[in-house]
Amino acid sequence: MTKQDYWNATRYDTQHAFVSHYGKDILSLLQPQQGETIVDVGCGTGDLAHELSKQDVHVIGIDASPNMIATAKEKYPHIPFYVQSATQLTGFSNVDAVFSNATLHWVKEPLTALQSMYAILKSGGRFVAEFGGAHNVETITHAIIDEIRHAGYRFDDAQFPWYYPSIAEYTTLMEAAGFHVTFAEHINRPTPLQGDEGLRNWMYMFADGLFEGIEKNVKDRIIKKVEERLRDVLWQDGRWIADYKRIRVMGVK
Ligand code: BEZ
Known about the structure:
By secondary structure, the chain is an alpha/beta fold. The protein has 9 helices and 8 strands. The chain has helices at 9-15, 18-30, 47-54, 66-75, 110-120, 138-150, 167-177, 198-206, 216-234, and strands at 37-41, 58-63, 81-83, 95-101, 121-132, 180-192, 235-236, 239-252. Strands 1, 2, 3, 4, 5, 6, 7 and 8 form an 8-stranded mixed β-sheet that branches. α5 (110-120) packs across α7 and α6 (138-150) packs across α9. It is globular and about 50 Å long. The mean pLDDT is 94.
């Protein structure tokens, strides 16, 4: 059965451009060199792949979402983009680096993904990633789950759609996959959301997985309640600030 693609590439680009904006920070850890071949795992609509291509890197973008890849191809026709999962990379080998921004918290088989990324690197190649770490957006997700239960729905931990590891946990998996871990950090990164409707838009864009099996009108009501409930906590100086916590890692094959 084909998996449904929930990603709305237009909404991603217009309301959540901060995702690739912050991704530019992590390019300094990657230190791309002219002429290198770099695979961007979870490239979304291709903005960071485009940044890399401007630095004369042979970049290849992969993403599990056909919607995202279709938009990436339209925006940047000179870059090769493919629909692939991080856990099953095929068709590449001996690449200089694998880079991933804001993606690996969606991958609930982290060791398989690490093994798959390790396999396509050349010896000495680097793996550089940033994604949601332990306690990421916890204020928001706790409030949503609480309101779901309050509305009379069951919510089991197994339904939680994200993987938010500590650096101890993730670097242990990196080593199990064969990497020599050269860098790891876990940081608070309070993240401003765009506009008065920023929190609501974030929930509609990213939190769909929490609402599986819940009717649209109930979902709308829960989102409204969460917004009211978090106004005192996350509305600061005239804007919504999400409680992002990131891990950044680098490993060498
Ligand atoms: C994140 O980038 O940390 C993130 C984005 C969407 C949903 C959950 C986490």
